[in-house]
């Protein structure tokens, strides 16, 4: 049985107006027919789109108005003055605009006025300078949704690889202490549930990377595997999860190894994102699992140095829009079946 077809548009926060966000959203809209994209609208300062692009735009007051205009114009919900815009020259007004747009777009997705949230690229440094106190958008959106940090999962996905870092935006020397049995168990459970709900994978095959070289080499190169990871993974296996590991991280990302699992759980940000971005930088998508709504984003940042040059690839944004819609539909199907 499948759920009702989704009829609300996707909300896209524009991101930093001095970055490539406006350009890739506009290019995404240009590709809407060729890529068969669902209706979406941009949220932010309308100037930030019109500064870079002279295609057709339509100012809307409510998300639902996007549906009628999407075919012939890029709908924009104009909501904050981002100040003077200069490509590649971020300002505090622009960062404030990105922050407010993120807040409003999150609200639309939470309320159901939008079927999903796609966030445009922001500079975290810029956001911090205007009072953003979360490490990243993932943590901000989780808090706005009332979801604890251990249940909000940052997953990045490309065509043949999905990765989840168990710790996200923290220093490398803080990782070992943060990798507790509780974190490992909660995040793996939340990942499995997210793959069921958003991707329709009933029993995901989960591969877990060791933290140390050769997964610790029997304790010679570190004790996290034996003392924390193996007992946590054994407990999860006893609950019925399909888990392999801890595996040597250096040998689990080549093509044949990737076929053996649906998601790779990694200890820290770069252990997960280096293989993913090396393989799929221009097309990978960041999705937050564990929320009561769907949130995706392109895998890249604002790329200030190429903003305004019309050379940014829109592929990751397009994939983020597609994944957001497909996940929202899969979620609707899942919830209808569960009811
Ligand atoms: N979803 C988001 O909002 C993300 C934000 N960031 C933030 O971005 C800021 C800058 O970080 P960087 O490591 O410099 O990342 P970045 O992704 O902005 O840039 C890395 C490199 O990739 C290139 N690049 C990025 N997007 C591209 C595109 N669409 N087409 C062609 N080339 C592209 C850039 O020119 C640069 O050479 C940081 O504050 C970071 O936290 C990083 C990743 C995701
Ligand atoms: N490298 C991934 C990343 O930084 C994601 O950031 P955010 O979406 O949580 O802001």
UniProtKB/TrEMBL annotation:
<dbReference type="InterPro" id="IPR005255">
    <property type="entry name" value="PdxA_fam"/>
</dbReference>
<comment type="pathway">
    <text>Cofactor biosynthesis; pyridoxine 5'-phosphate biosynthesis; pyridoxine 5'-phosphate from D-erythrose 4-phosphate: step 4/5.</text>
</comment>
<keyword id="KW-0963">Cytoplasm</keyword>
<protein>
    <recommendedName>
        <fullName>4-hydroxythreonine-4-phosphate dehydrogenase</fullName>
        <ecNumber>1.1.1.262</ecNumber>
    </recommendedName>
</protein>
<feature type="binding site">
    <location>
        <position position="286"/>
    </location>
    <ligand>
        <name>substrate</name>
    </ligand>
</feature>
<comment type="subunit">
    <text>Homodimer.</text>
</comment>
<keyword id="KW-0560">Oxidoreductase</keyword>
<keyword id="KW-0460">Magnesium</keyword>
<feature type="binding site">
    <location>
        <position position="138"/>
    </location>
    <ligand>
        <name>substrate</name>
    </ligand>
</feature>
<keyword id="KW-0664">Pyridoxine biosynthesis</keyword>
<dbReference type="GO" id="GO:0008615">
    <property type="term" value="P:pyridoxine biosynthetic process"/>
</dbReference>
<keyword id="KW-0520">NAD</keyword>
<feature type="binding site">
    <location>
        <position position="295"/>
    </location>
    <ligand>
        <name>substrate</name>
    </ligand>
</feature>
<keyword id="KW-0479">Metal-binding</keyword>
<dbReference type="GO" id="GO:0051287">
    <property type="term" value="F:NAD binding"/>
</dbReference>
<keyword id="KW-0170">Cobalt</keyword>
<dbReference type="GO" id="GO:0000287">
    <property type="term" value="F:magnesium ion binding"/>
</dbReference>
<dbReference type="GO" id="GO:0005737">
    <property type="term" value="C:cytoplasm"/>
</dbReference>
<dbReference type="GO" id="GO:0050570">
    <property type="term" value="F:4-hydroxythreonine-4-phosphate dehydrogenase activity"/>
</dbReference>
<keyword id="KW-0862">Zinc</keyword>
<dbReference type="GO" id="GO:0042823">
    <property type="term" value="P:pyridoxal phosphate biosynthetic process"/>
</dbReference>
<dbReference type="Pfam" id="PF04166">
    <property type="entry name" value="PdxA"/>
</dbReference>
<comment type="function">
    <text>Catalyzes the NAD(P)-dependent oxidation of 4-(phosphooxy)-L-threonine (HTP) into 2-amino-3-oxo-4-(phosphooxy)butyric acid which spontaneously decarboxylates to form 3-amino-2-oxopropyl phosphate (AHAP).</text>
</comment>
<feature type="binding site">
    <location>
        <position position="169"/>
    </location>
    <ligand>
        <name>a divalent metal cation</name>
    </ligand>
</feature>
<dbReference type="GO" id="GO:0050897">
    <property type="term" value="F:cobalt ion binding"/>
</dbReference>
<dbReference type="GO" id="GO:0008270">
    <property type="term" value="F:zinc ion binding"/>
</dbReference>
<comment type="similarity">
    <text>Belongs to the PdxA family.</text>
</comment>
<feature type="binding site">
    <location>
        <position position="277"/>
    </location>
    <ligand>
        <name>substrate</name>
    </ligand>
</feature>
<dbReference type="InterPro" id="IPR037510">
    <property type="entry name" value="PdxA"/>
</dbReference>
<feature type="binding site">
    <location>
        <position position="214"/>
    </location>
    <ligand>
        <name>a divalent metal cation</name>
    </ligand>
</feature>
<keyword id="KW-0521">NADP</keyword>
<feature type="binding site">
    <location>
        <position position="269"/>
    </location>
    <ligand>
        <name>a divalent metal cation</name>
    </ligand>
</feature>
């Amino acid at each position: 049985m499948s759920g009702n077809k989704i009829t609300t548009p996707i909300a896209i926060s524009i991101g930093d107006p001095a970055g490539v966000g406006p350009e890739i959203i506009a290019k995404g809209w240009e590709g809407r027919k060729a890529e068969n994209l669902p209706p979406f609208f941009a949220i932010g300062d309308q100037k930030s789109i019109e500064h870079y692009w002279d295609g057709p735009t339509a100012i809307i007051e409510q998300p639902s108005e996007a549906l009628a205009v999407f075919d012939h114009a890029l709908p924009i919900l104009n909501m904050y003055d981002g100040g003077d815009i200069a490509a590649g020259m971020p300002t505090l007004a622009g960062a404030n605009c990105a922050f407010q747009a993120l807040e409003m777009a999150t609200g639309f997705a939470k309320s159901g006025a939008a079927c999903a949230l796609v966030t445009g690229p922001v500079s975290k440094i810029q956001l911090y300078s205007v009072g953003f106190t979360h490490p990243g958008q993932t943590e901000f959106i989780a808090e706005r949704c009332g979801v604890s940090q251990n249940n909000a999962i940052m997953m990045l996905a490309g065509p043949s690889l999905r990765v989840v870092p168990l710790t996200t935006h923290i220093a490398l020397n803080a990782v070992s202490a943060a990798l507790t049995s509780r974190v490992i168990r909660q995040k793996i459970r939340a990942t499995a549930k997210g793959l069921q709900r958003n991707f329709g994978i009933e029993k995901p095959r989960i591969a877990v990377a060791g933290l140390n070289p050769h997964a610790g080499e029997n304790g010679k190169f570190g004790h996290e595997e034996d003392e924390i990871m193996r007992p946590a993974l054994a407990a999860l296996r006893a609950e019925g999860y399909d888990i392999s590991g801890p595996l040597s991280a250096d040998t689990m990302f080549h093509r044949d190894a990737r076929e053996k699992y649906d998601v790779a759980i990694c200890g820290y940000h770069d252990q997960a994102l280096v293989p993913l971005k090396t393989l799929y930088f221009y097309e990978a998508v960041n999705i937050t699992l564990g929320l009561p709504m769907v949130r995706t984003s392109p895998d890249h940042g604002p790329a200030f140095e190429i903003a305004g040059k019309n050379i940014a690839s829109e592929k990751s944004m397009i994939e983020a829009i597609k994944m957001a819609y497909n996940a929202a539909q899969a979620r609707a199907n899942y919830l209808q079946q569960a009811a």
